[in-house]
Amino acid sequence: KARCDINAIVHAHPVASTSVAIMGQDIPQIHYIVAAAGGVTIYATHHIKHLAKVAFEVALKALVDRKACLLAHHRTIALGQSLESTLNLTAKVENLAKQYINCLQMGKPRLLSDEQMQEVLSKFKGYGRTD
C-alpha cells in the first residue's frame, strides 16, 4: 500500500546477503549493478521486541527510494513490478553480497564514487524491461 509502483515482494534468506546483514554491513558501491536496487543497497536494523511490526516499519523506511534492502541479522527484501523481476533483483543482491565478501578477503574494495553511481542511475531509468 505504501508503494503503488510495486506488485511483488520477495523476503528471502540467501546465505551471502544474510551473512552481510549479520555482520551489520551495507553492500557499498562496489559495482554498478547496485543501481538496480535504486541506489546503494542499505542495511537497516530490526529489533526483537515486536519483531514483525518493527521490521515492517524499518523496511518501509529503508525502501523509500530503493527496491532492495538488508535487515540486520535477518534477511533480504526486494520489491518489483512482477514476481519474476523481483526474484531477479533478489538474485542480483545475493550476487553482490558474494562479490563483496570475496573482495573483503583481498582487502578494502575500491568503491564507485557518488558521481559514478548517479551516472549509472540516470542510465538505468530507461534501461531494460519495465516489469
Distance between the termini: 18 Å
Count the beta strands.
4
Low-confidence runs of at least 5 consecutive residues: none
Strand order of the largest sheet: 1-4-3-2
Estimated helix fraction: 40-55%
Shape: globular
Q: By helix and strand content, what is the structural category?
A: alpha+beta
What series of H and E elements makes up the topology?
Answer: EHEHEEHH
The main β sheet shows up as: 4 strands, mixed
Q: What is the residue-mean pLDDT, rounded to a whole number? A: 82
Strand content: 5-15%
Radius of gyration: 14 Å
Number of helices: 4
Write out key terms for the chains shown.
4 strands, 14% strand, 42% helix, 131 residues, globular, alpha+beta, four-stranded mixed sheet
In short:
The chain has 131 residues and is of the alpha+beta class. It has helices spanning 15-22, 51-62, 83-106, 114-124; strands at residues 8-12, 42-44, 68-71, 75-80. The chain contains four helices and four strands, in the order E-H-E-H-E-E-H-H.
Descriptive notes:
The chain has a four-stranded mixed beta sheet with strand order 1-4-3-2. The chain is globular. The longest helix is centred in the last third of the chain and has 24 residues. The chain is an alpha+beta fold. It is built from four helices and four strands; from the N terminus they run βαβαββαα. The two termini are 18 Å apart. Helix 1 packs across helix 3. Helix 2 links the parallel strand 2 and strand 3. It is 42% helix and 14% strand.
